[in-house]
Amino acid sequence: MSDLLDIAVEAHGGMDRWDRSRSLTVDAQITGSLFDLKGQPDIFKQVEVEISCGSPHTIYKSLGASEERYGTFEPGRVAIFRGEELQEELTNPRAAIHALSPAEPWQELHVLYFGGYAIWHYLAAPFVFTRSGFQVEEIAPWKEGEENWRRLEVTFPKSVPSHCPKQTYYFDQSNLLRRMDYHVEILNVEIPVAHYCYDHRSIGGIVIPHRRRAVSRRSDGTADFGALYVEIELQNASIQAIAD
Question: In terms of pTM, does the model score above 0.90?
Answer without folding.
Answer: yes
